[in-house]
Write a structure and sequence with these properties.
This protein is an alpha+beta fold. It has two domains: 87 residues, Orthogonal Bundle (Helix Hairpins), CATH 1.10.287; 144 residues, Helix Hairpins, CATH 1.10.287.1490. It contains six helices and five strands, in the order H-H-H-H-E-E-E-H-E-E-H.
């Protein structure tokens, strides 16, 4: 295939842009914040488990306290009722029965209130544990959100570079003759590189020194004829300054 030396040199610029695009895409995928975010998953799971356990314990105690308060309220109402009945009673036997019940209710009220006090003391500790677990979970969530924001910002910056580089590539590709561009794209798809410079005796496509016979054969080819790297198969672009 024939292509002017200028067209061949444009291939080097195109390959440089393709290399830049590949690096940008790789950098986008391998942002260090992604690994940091993935590494937080275990910490987040542990913080959620501690928080949920503390919440369950606190909810259970609050429900127990609410139930005790309801029981105490019932006892107080019965005590009030019995006191009213005792005050209005004209029967000694009925008054005695009411007094016995009042004593039983008083003991019941005292036991319930003692249990409520114990639960409220335990509830204070559970509340502090819950508050600490909630704060720890919020801290992990905030750090995760910060990392996600950092990832989004980094992605946006890389996407801008990708868009700019893609535009530059499209403009450069438009300057290349169609058959040369198609040949370059075919090689790049097959071997990962379409074109590289021949720098002295070194093929930058393979980063290997050419054998003397290979170099002689390549340098003997007309400047407007394409030559290829013997090792990789990529287009080798001869640049006069390099040959000198």
């Amino acid at each position: 295939m024939k292509a002017s030396p200028r067209q061949q040199r444009l291939l080097l610029d195109l390959q440089a842009l393709d290399n830049s695009l590949a690096r940008l895409k790789k950098r986008r995928v391998q942002l260090p914040q992604r690994a940091e975010l993935a590494g937080m998953q275990g910490e987040l799971t542990a913080a959620k488990e501690v928080f949920m356990a503390a919440q369950r314990e606190l909810d259970t105690q609050n429900a127990d306290i609410e139930r005790l308060e309801s029981d105490i309220d019932v006892v107080r109402q019965r005590i009030q009722r019995d006191n009213e009945l005792s005050a209005a009673s004209q029967s000694a036997k009925e008054a005695q029965a009411l007094q016995t019940e009042l004593e039983t209710l008083a003991r019941r009220q005292s036991a319930l209130e003692d249990r409520e006090l114990e639960l409220m003391e335990a509830n204070e500790l559970s509340q502090s544990v819950y508050d600490a677990a909630s704060a720890a979970l919020a801290s992990v969530d905030q750090r995760r959100a910060d990392i996600q924001n950092a990832i989004a910002e980094a992605e946006a910056a890389i996407d801008r570079e990708l868009a700019e580089t893609t535009r530059d590539r499209a403009g450069l590709a438009a300057e290349l003759q169609r058959d040369l561009l198609e040949h370059y794209e075919t090689l790049r798809a097959r071997i990962g590189i379409g074109a590289a410079r021949l720098r002295g005796k070194i093929s930058e496509a393979s980063n290997m020194e050419l054998a003397p016979a290979e170099l002689t054969d390549i340098l003997a080819v007309a400047p407007d004829e394409l030559v290829h790297c013997p090792q990789s198969g990529a287009i080798l672009v001869r640049v006069e300054d390099d040959a000198a």
